Amino acid sequence: MSEDVRDLLKKNHMSVTDSRLQILELFYHAPGALAHADIEKKASDKIDRVTIYRTLQTFEEKGIIHTIPSADNSVKYALCKHECAEGHHHDNHVHFVCDECGKTICLDDVLVPDVKLPKGFEPHQSNMVVNGLCNECK
Amino acid sequence: MSEDVRDLLKKNHMSVTDSRLQILELFYHAPGALAHADIEKKASDKIDRVTIYRTLQTFEEKGIIHTIPSADNSVKYALCKHECAEGHHHDNHVHFVCDECGKTICLDDVLVPDVKLPKGFEPHQSNMVVNGLCNECK
DNA sequence: TACAGTTTTGCAATGATGTTGCAAATTTTA
DNA sequence: TAAAATTTGCAACATCATTGCAAAACTGTA
Description:
Two copies of one chain form a homodimer.
Chain A: H1 2-11, H2 18-29, E1 34-35, H3 36-42, H4 49-62, E2 65-68, E3 76-79, E4 93-98, E5 104-111, E6 122-133
Parallel strand pairs in A: 4-6
Antiparallel strand pairs in A: 1-3, 2-3, 4-5
Helix pairs in contact in A: 1-2
Chain A binds a DNA duplex through residues 14-20, 36-37, 47-51, 53-55, 73.
């Protein structure tokens, strides 16, 4: 497993460092999306806050993770399942946030539907977040 | 106009104060959704930062405004067009964020479509944000 | 494996963003 | 208009995020 993670970094032309390996492993084992704060808690205090910020940013730029919008000032990040091109993401799936356990889950198989916009609006990217009860809490 | 605003406060059983009137007016004249920071800048420095936080929170609880999720840690607020019941919002419309001018616009007439969730997931509320070019920037 | 060049990390300093308690001011109610 | 209730502003504080820079780690090459 640790090897897979290492390969993923190499494939994306990134230096292989302890911090990056550790954070990536966290994502692989996480039950859902992770916020900066989650990582800070879980990633044994060896990793500096600043490094986490920079790592998340780099991962996002490389298309390894994507952000999930939220209405409470707490952006979360999740692995991109299907390979995302650098800079151009294809995380076109719906995200689910459980009101009970708080987990944020990527519903990789549920695609964001198209909507008809008013005249003059040109869509580039869509995001959809559904709140409710997840399969474990129901 | 100022009278309408005053009535809206009364109808929602809120004290009518200068800060609230001023902030509400801002929303009525704003081209799009407003973030806390926007209000702080526009609302002549008479109003304290803390008051803005508290006012926004109260407005949201009363259903006068609703929050719009974003992927960059910057929640925005917009007026609820159709009356929202206290605590229970009906802002079931799509939000549009222009990549060019940055404005966040409520597309009141475009409803968030339903999606079919995997077994075991029970939806309560949906949010959809579309990025692209708005009718003015295109 | 060692070395030079490049990238990444950690620290410190700083700035922006939110929150809380409490007294003073304002608004509402009677 | 006076008393009661609500709201505001200030101060202090906690959290979150960004930047510059020197030290440390990593990469490719010999």
